[in-house]
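[step 3/7] fold_predict: job queued, chain A
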Amino acid sequence: MFKNLFVLLTFITVLACGSKPRVLLDEDTSTLKPSKQHEVIAKDVVSILQNYSYKKVAPSDSISQIVFDNLIKSLDEGKYYFTQADIDDMSQFRNNISQDMAKGDLSSAFYIFNKFNQRAIECLEYALKQIDAAHDFSKEEKYVSFRDKLDWFKSDQELKDHWRKRIKFDLLSLKLTSAEGKDESAKHKETLKKRYSNLLSQVKKTNSNDAFQYIMAAYTDAIDPHTTYYNPAFAQRFNEDMSNTLEGIGARLQLENDMVTIKEIIAGGPAYKDKTLKIDDRIIAVAQGDGEFEDIIGWRLDAAVSKN
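[step 4/7] structure written:
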C-alpha cells in the first residue's frame, strides 16, 4: 500500500491548491517561495500521515507547536541568528502551521525560513567586516560558542556583539597556532575571510527545495521521530547509506557549532581500522594527497563531505 502511495506522490499532477495563503511573501527575487509542487506534496504528506500511518495524527494546535519548535531548532539550534523580536514575530504561526500545511499553504513556514536566511546573511556580512576591525586582546570578555541553553538575543546590538566576540575568538584561536614571536595576523585574517565568505555564499545559494526539506522534516518529526521526508537528493543519499556499501572514512558526521564532528565510528571502516579518529573529534580542514589543507569550518555538511 505504501509503495503505491509513494508512486502516487512521485507522479502526482501539479495543481494549484486554491486556498488563500496566510502570508503574502515578498516579491523580491531573494525571497524563497514554495512551488505548486511543494504545496501539493505537503498537502498529500499530511493526509497520508493523518489517514494511513499507524498513529493517524491529525493537524492541530499542539502538533503545530511541535512543528514550529522543530523548524526553529533545525534552523538556529545554537541561537546565533534570531533575536527575541524575531521569535515573537514568527510565533504568530505557532498554533496553525500544521493546519496550513494540510491545506497546501506553506507561506508561514517559508516566511520563517526566509527570516532565518535574512538574519544569517546579515550576521555573516557583519562578521566579515569585523575581521579587519581592531580587537583588544588584553580586554577580558566572555564568549559562549554554543548558546542553545541561553535566551534569544534581546536586541540587534546584543546579536552584533556576539558576532564581534566570535570573530575575536576565531582570530585569537588562530593566533595561538602561530610560532612564538611570529606575526601571522594577515594570514589569519585571510583564513577567516575565506571561511565566512564561503559560509555566506552557501547561505545565498539556498533554494526553495532546501527550505522545503527543512519544513517537511520538521512536520514528519513532530508526528514520529522515526519518520522523515526526503527530497530527491536526500533520498538518494539515504538509499546509498542503506545499500550496505560504506565509502569514505567510515564515520557518521554531524554539524555542530559550524564544525563537522565525528559522532560515530563505523565498525570495519577505514576510521575504525586506523584508530586515529575518536568520537566528538572535529574536522576543520581537508586535503587531497599532499595538497594544501582547505578550511571547512562553516561549510554545509554535504559540501564538506563531497570535498572529502
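[step 5/7] annotate
The CA atoms of residues 43 and 103 lie 6 Å apart.
The radius of gyration is 22 Å.
exit 0
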